[in-house]
Amino acid sequence: MSAPTLLGVSLKMYFGHHETLNWARRVGDLAARHPAVTGGLTEVFVLPAFPGIVPVHSVLAGTGVTVGAQDLATEDRGPYTGEVSGPYLKEIGCSYAEVGHAERRRLFGEGDTVVAAKTAAALRSGLTPVLCVGELDRAEPAEAAERTTAELARILDTAARHGADAGRVVVAYEPQWAIGAPEPASAEHITTVCAALTDWLTARPRYAESRVIYGGSAGPGLLGRLGDGVDGLFLGRFAHDPAAVGLILDEISARGAVKAGA
Ligand SMILES: O=C(CO)COP(=O)(O)O
């Protein structure tokens, strides 16, 4: 069987605490009985705000949905007021830690050096980094592929030079101009860039089992247009309605049925 489609959701800072738990209950109920999840066609992960991690982890226990954080500290312990470390996140049940999101770069001044250090911190703690990369402005697919692959190489090579462990990385291709937009990048754009990122990772055994997913106004209807070259989706706003998550799980089932029949 081919690798499961990865479906990630970042709740960013959209929901309050009770909204977060209600959403998690509804998505958990859906996932627990959806054939795409129970049949192993997909792996679903959710990134709530930090205070939501522990309760969401317990709400989702047994549903097949895993939990991660939207950020983590570069360091593992010490005088870093307001930060949350990788070991702490691991201890409270996280499997993933997102690094390098465009909003953290734009609003909080994070650059490649910090993103590389956070990637290393995640790997060191046994968390899968969800490493966001993507061009700032609209570009032709081939140019976007070149720029984004160079960005990925810069970050992972810096992390490796500083002694980062080898391990699985989820690369989230998120063209910055497509985040918070009415619609995602075109299927041609997404597949061209994701193929280039996959080639780069495949040539490096230290990142074995790594995956490339697409985010940026992704929602129902997109996955079916992307083909096998894209390993999954990273959802923002269009996951706020749990029914939309259900529709995407239906699409994953359909994709699995096509593959099984191929
Ligand atoms: O940034 C994103 C996921 O990390 C995408 O957000 P939107 O789908 O809301 O554009």
UniProtKB/TrEMBL annotation:
The keyword Transcription regulation does not apply. Pathway: Carbohydrate biosynthesis; gluconeogenesis; Carbohydrate degradation; glycolysis; D-glyceraldehyde 3-phosphate from glycerone phosphate: step 1/1. One of its GO terms (molecular function) is isomerase activity. SUPFAM superfamilies: Triosephosphate isomerase (TIM). Its EC number is 5.3.1.1. It catalyses: D-glyceraldehyde 3-phosphate = dihydroxyacetone phosphate. Keywords: Cytoplasm, Gluconeogenesis, Glycolysis, Isomerase. Its main location: cytoplasm. It is found in: Cytoplasm. It is an enzyme of class 5 (isomerase). It comes from the Bacteria. InterPro entries: Aldolase_TIM, TIM_sf, Triosephosphate_isomerase. The keyword Metal-binding does not apply. Belongs to the triosephosphate isomerase family. Homodimer. This is Triosephosphate isomerase.
